[in-house]
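Lecture notes, structural biology module. Today: joint structure prediction for complexes of two components.
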Amino acid sequence: MKKSRIILLTVFCLLMIPAALLAAYSVELNYRDDIEGEDPAENLTFPFIEADDNAITDEDNPHIPADQYLAITLEGLYEAEMEIYTNNFPEESPSTDEWGYQYGGMVNRPRRGRAELLWRLSNQPGRLIPGGRPGEEPSSDRFEWKYIKDKADIDIPEAEGDQSWDEAQNAGYTRVSLSTETYIFFEGNFFQAGAGEYNTVVHLDFYEITPVDPEPELESVSMEMDQSGGTLTMENGSYLQIPENSFYDEDLNDGKITITLSESTETFKAPRQAADEEPVRTYRIEPENLRLRRTAELQLYAMPTAEFRTGAAVMNNRGIKIFLRDRRFDEWELEGGEDSPLDGKLFLKGSLREFGTRAIYQTKPLTDDDFRPRKRIVTPNSEAVFQALDGQNTKIKIYDVTGREVRRIGSDDNYTWNGSDRRGNFVESGIYIYQFKVEIEGSTKLISGTLAVAK
Amino acid sequence: MRKYRYAILISLFTVLTVAGPSEAAFKDPGWGARPTGMGGAFTAVADDSNTMFFNPAGLANIKTYDACAMHAGLFTGLDEVSIGLSLVSFAMPLHNSGGAGISWTNLNARDLYNENAFTVAYGHRFLPNLSGGVGLKYLGQGYTLDRYAEEDEVFKDGDYSDAFTADLGLLYKPQSDITLALSGINVIPADIGRQYEDIVPTVIRAGAAYRIPNMVIMDQLPVRNIVTAVDFSWRFQDWGDTEDKLTVNMGVEAWLLDEMLPVRAGADLSGSGIKNIALGTGFLKEISEVEMSIDYSFMLPVNSVRDTYGSHRVSLSGKF
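The predicted structure, tokenised, for the full assembly:
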């Protein structure tokens, strides 16, 4: 023990969390007292806080580390907030004229009113924690020490004779955000106080505890299907619904085929329309490149609705879309998908004719070109896929060079032109014009362009 | 004038040689400004070098050297639609009962597609009121390949293909003011396919034209050389319905201001109704014994391609 006084500190923690969530995460409290060389973690009591008159030191007398701290470990939590205060006057607010900030530290009335108990947050336990200047402003911004105040001690800055200083005067007790590993260092400066020993109780209240979005366990569902079709459903609500007679016979083995819908962490270069490099979620639909005769219905879970609606997405006019991976050309096809919120979850509903990897990205506002096909030459081996049209409820009209309508393409065709006419016959080679309407930011626009057909 | 004829002939052949490979266009987008102004009803009109695109028998009735150059913008005003159509044609009388012609046409979609046709044709008058004609065509088709198409099996042998075919035609004048016509375009199967067969469809055209030499409208306006015409055509294509294969073209032409100012109007219909309406005009003036004319036509699609400013054609012709 060094000179001066000591203070007994007991810590109570009130976890303001629903009991039902207790199993999902925990707040672990441990304290360390290097001075005493003990670690009585079980009772969470600091026998003493070192009353070091150098703890709050001046700039010429470099800091002395705070040797005593409380370690808070958030297990399984995404974030939490904590209020730290004493509750020495739970019934009645103290007079700031008489008591001021020091109620945070003292039960007994200090002789000269200078007996601050300070705390500081850090996520670096090994780092030395400097104190403030004695007798002046112990909680300077530079050192970020804060007063531990009484919960009722909300000072009135304009009050005459107010003895509180700076943020202690204005802030009342303190509420802070915690990181996963947080350390609370305690320091006292009692050399000017009259009493030889004080004790107080420090309350830690935890709020706004948000469980971590658990590291997704990659889900995978498989089903053996035949021409009667079926629905693959994931626990997160994603599904793939394949109608009857969707498979080409050559893809079936003894009339059956195994279909798999799975989440993936595979990463690729983001599409140019993406607002972020990272996809929101990625799914694989296998067998890769399997093509269907009929359009299947696809619903993919993206994220919690609140996360999208309240985040930067709306402010930045972002959308959220499904992209189909074109492995051959290392590119993405923008399929689109219709926002479909349900039970707090945001799904994207779309359709598919071709299996493969799909990723959900948040997107920048779309332009005309984002709807046009990437591939402009249609052949018996290559189709023109019009992009981002899921949910647009539009029809694409294909005309020949004389202006004669050759074909209308809709959602039933997955907005894909394979070069066939109304009867399914492949048209002759040449130049063709397409037109369709889309809604872009609330207004209707006619998109035109040309395609060539070759055989 | 004879010395000019050879100079113009040499110039025309030079243009045809420089302009590109001798290739062909395969679907009738309307061709020249004068026929298009008449709604494309030209099979029986067949009285200038445009006849090579409709009916080679018309060459039998060519009286002078006739050269024409035309450029068109199709479906103008649409974003990302840039389709151009160009042609050069020349016809000349060979003797009292025959005429010959050559032509080059090009249909081009910018950075995507290019289609050319080169035709050599001859028309002969067998009887005073019956002519026949034949045209030999070289068709060529090219694509601007993007990275996707380069990987496509269809283009494994390159971006260009070609084929030969022929046109045939008959022209019959039962009386001086009526002409009847029958022609077959692409009558020899021409496979321009690469990986798969792609036969350019044969088109059979039947047409009639009725001419009125003079007329005075409302006792005020003298009009000359009025021609009304109608064509029926059937395209023997493998795709589409009857309405896609059948086309009816109809149009009228009349000359005002002492045959200096032509006015034209027409339309073409498919089985489902009017497809395009067309208007045309021009200006004709004789300069140094060359009858020069500028022609313009405007064609607007009806109930099909929307928000377009239409297709515009401008041609420059000379008869000498």
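Point to remember: The CA atoms of residues 65 and 129 of chain A lie 5 Å apart.
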